[in-house]
C-alpha cells in the first residue's frame, strides 16, 4: 500500500536520508527505528511532502504521491501524526475533533461515537481545553484527530516521546487496537524495544541509511542489533 523507493533528503550539504526503500502493506505495522539524528523523522516528512526530497519516489495505493500537497494526502487515506502532537491547545477536546472532522469532510455525528469508542478517556474529557490535558491525553487526542479521516494508513512520529512508561503502555494499546481495525501503520520510534515488540516488520536507520531490516522477531534476534542498538535506544 505504501512503497518508498530510493528516497533521498538533503539539507544543504547534509544528507539526512540516503536511498531509503521501505514497504508497508495494508493492515501491517512497520517500525522505522533509530537513534536521534538517524533520519527517521526526515524520512516521514519527505513521505508526506512536508519537506522536499532530493530524489526517489513514494507510492500510496499504487499512485505516485511525490507532488501531492501534504494537506490533500488525508483525503487519499494517508494521515500522519507529527512529533509534538499538533493539537489546538486553545480548543476543547470536542472542538479539536470537530475541526478534524470538517477538514476530512466528515460529519461530527458520524465521527463522534466511533472516536470515543476507541478513546474513552477523551470522551470523559471532551469539554476540557487541550491545554489542560496530560501529555498522554494530548497524544491520544492527536491520534484521535488523525483517525477521524478513517485512514487506510497512519504514520506515527515518536508517539512515546516524553511520556512516562505507564502512559506509553496505554498509548500503544490504542495503537494496537487501531491496527486490529485494519489500518496500516508506519511507526517511527526511538524506543526500539517497544517498536519491535508491537510491529510485524522493522527497519533500522543510522546516519540516514537503513542498516538492517526484516521481520521484527528476526531484527530483535540479530546480535549486532542487541549489542549496539537495543541497549542504546
Task: Walk me through the topology.
Elements: E1 2-11, E2 14-24, E3 29-33, H1 40-47, E4 55-60, E5 63-64, H2 73-76, E6 78-81, H3 93-103, H4 108-118, H5 120-124, H6 135-147, E7 153-157, H7 165-180, E8 184-189, H8 192-198, E9 201-206, E10 209-215, H9 216-221, H10 223-230
Parallel strand pairs: 3-8, 3-9, 6-7, 7-8
Antiparallel strand pairs: 1-2, 1-4, 4-5, 9-10
At a glance:
By secondary structure, this protein is an alpha/beta fold. The chain is built from ten helices and ten strands.
Describe this entry's structure for a reader.
The chain has 233 residues and is α/β, with parallel strands linked by helices. It contains 10 helices and 10 strands. It has helices at residues 40-47, 73-76, 93-103, 108-118, 120-124, 135-147, 165-180, 192-198, 216-221, 223-230; strands at residues 2-11, 14-24, 29-33, 55-60, 63-64, 78-81, 153-157, 184-189, 201-206, 209-215. The strands form 2 sheets. The chain has a 6-stranded mixed β-sheet, sandwiched between helices. It has a 4-stranded antiparallel β-sheet with strand order 2-1-4-5, with helices on one face. Strand 9 and strand 10 form a beta hairpin. Helix 3 (93-103) runs parallel beside helix 6 (135-147). The longest helix has 16 residues, at 165-180. The protein is globular, with a radius of gyration of 17 Å. The mean pLDDT is 89.
